[in-house]
């Protein structure tokens, strides 16, 4: 159920100041040795998980287990957030939440990292 641009997601109050737990990729895929297609940042705790387009769908599983509903794309050039509870994109400009997100953007990894897809660029 995709909502209109003027819809106010009731889960926005779950967004916190977050720092990405890792800059190496999907936490679940790294632990299992599986690959990912797209990375998402949990805006409640900083968990980095793979999207629904990835085989393991760790971002969604994290949202279901933890009750943390909103993620932000970590793919370079993306500027969107998603609410798993409402299966809706949160359109920009984002409503003011007071939260600060610290997450590096994505860059293609070296050839030996291709089995994992893209990885997050290391922070300076």
Report on this structure:
By secondary structure, this protein is of the alpha+beta class. It has one domain (10-104): Herpes Virus-1 (2-Layer Sandwich), CATH 3.30.40. 12% of the residues lie in helices and 22% in strands. The protein has a 5-stranded antiparallel sheet. A two-stranded parallel ribbon has the order 1-7. A two-stranded antiparallel ribbon has the order 8-9. A hairpin with a 4-residue loop joins β5 (81-83) and β6. The termini are far apart. Pfam families: zf-UBP. InterPro entries: Znf_RING/FYVE/PHD, Znf_UBP. This is UBP-type domain-containing protein.
Profile the largest sheet: 5 strands, antiparallel
Please name the fourth-level CATH homologous superfamily: Zinc/RING finger domain, C3HC4 (zinc finger)
Please identify the top-level CATH class: Alpha Beta
Q: What coarse outline follows from CA principal-axis ratios?
A: globular
How many domains in all? 1
Total helix count?
Answer: 2
Radius of gyration: 14 Å
CATH topology: Herpes Virus-1
* Poorly predicted parts: 106-124
Percent helix: 10-25%
Name the beta content range: 15-25%
- The CATH architecture classification is 2-Layer Sandwich
Structural class by helix and strand composition: alpha+beta
Termini Cα gap: 39 Å
Domain UBP-type: 7-109
Pfam families: zf-UBP
GO molecular function: zinc ion binding
Protein name: UBP-type domain-containing protein
């Amino acid at each position: 159920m995709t909502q209109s641009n003027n819809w106010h997601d009731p889960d926005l109050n779950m967004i916190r100041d977050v720092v990405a737990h890792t800059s190496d990729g999907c936490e679940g895929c790294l632990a299992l040795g599986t690959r990912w297609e797209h990375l998402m940042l949990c805006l409640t705790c900083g968990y980095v998980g793979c999207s629904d387009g990835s085989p393991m769908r760790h971002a969604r599983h994290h949202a279901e287990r933890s009750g943390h509903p909103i993620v932000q794309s970590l793919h370079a050039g993306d500027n969107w957030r998603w609410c798993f509870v409402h299966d809706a994109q949160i359109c920009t400009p984002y409503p003011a939440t007071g939260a600060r997100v610290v997450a590096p953007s994505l860059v293609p990894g070296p050839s030996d990292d291709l089995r994992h897809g893209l990885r997050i660029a290391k922070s300076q």
